[in-house]
Amino acid sequence: MGTVFAGKEIEFSYNQKKPVLNRLSLSIGEKQIFGLLGPNGAGKSTLTKVMLGLDKPRGGTIQWFNERLNASTNKRVGYVPQDLALMYDLSAYDNVMFFGKLYGLKGEKLKKQIQFALEFVGLWEERAQKPKKFSGGMKRRLNIACGIVHNPDVIILDEPTVGVDPQSRNRILDAILELNQLGTTVVYISHYMEEVEKICTHVGIIDKGRLLCQGELGDIIEEFTDEAVIRLELQKKKAHYAQQLKSFTVLDAEEPYIHLSVPKHDVHFISRIKEAFGDDVKSFQYVSPNLEQVFFKLTQKNLRD
Ligand SMILES: Nc1ncnc2c1ncn2[C@@H]1O[C@H](COP(=O)(O)OP(=O)(O)OP(=O)(O)O)[C@@H](O)[C@H]1O
């Protein structure tokens, strides 16, 4: 599989003092759904702007499709910004047309692409309406239609599900998966770990302008977690088991559950639990290592902090 984006040693700062992107290298492969994660202020939006050529890096190199960034590579990349970029007095149709023209589409091709984009996000029936009457989810979907009207090879979506109802959220996630199945590479910036785990094939985590890890989702979880979590439910309250719990690492307890940390591939934990608590075990659940743990391990922050 080819590489669609390769950034090497990218350096960027808004003022001379503090680097916002610090020799950051990132590579994104063809047909991936690449989840870009990082705490607030990590540099995600800045990186996106630099990737799109909207901000010029102080150092490093940027290549799209094995070429230096240029007008023709730019046309192959779509961008759906976090802030809605809509014209509220124009119809949904005319909004998408505006962006289509911006990318040089015209005539029948333009019409065909507008219909494709609006149908894709489920707004074709509402094409004559103005977005000021739309719900938050519909506005986001229209924003996406504007970003995909020119049928880009890559689409960068910055937090596309913020502030939308669950139905629109699912619709957006399904649309992204479908777009990917049609061959589009997706760069997905999100604060929602469940969404990233659900749709992304690859992830990159950045903090303080540095790339902390990148790779295939399953490999990253395997590489950067040592512990699994057991959710234990016992007959009595936690205080009753103070002695037995001494031989375990207790993460937290929210009655009636106690969360224990166990080494990831420890095959003896079931017998250890049985030995310690016997018939007092009402239930227990093995929670597989997940991306949230990776994020916390690498950044010492929760994603939503
Ligand atoms: N226009 C600007 N001028 C000066 N500093 C800026 C500007 N935009 C962002 N910054 C700073 O650059 C750093 C990275 O910000 P950026 O918006 O890229 O982070 P982010 O990871 O996208 O954050 P969030 O998740 O909150 O959107 C922050 O310290 C921010 O304050």
TrEMBL record:
SMART domains: AAA. Residues 5-233 form the ABC transporter domain. Pfam families: ABC_tran. InterPro entries: AAA+_ATPase, ABC_transporter-like_ATP-bd, ABC_transporter-like_CS, P-loop_NTPase. GO terms for molecular function: ATP binding; ATP hydrolysis activity. Keywords: ATP-binding, Nucleotide-binding. It comes from the Bacteria. The keyword DNA-binding does not apply. This is ABC transporter ATP-binding protein. It comes from Paenibacillus spiritus. The lineage of its organism: Bacteria, Bacillati, Bacillota, Bacilli, Bacillales.
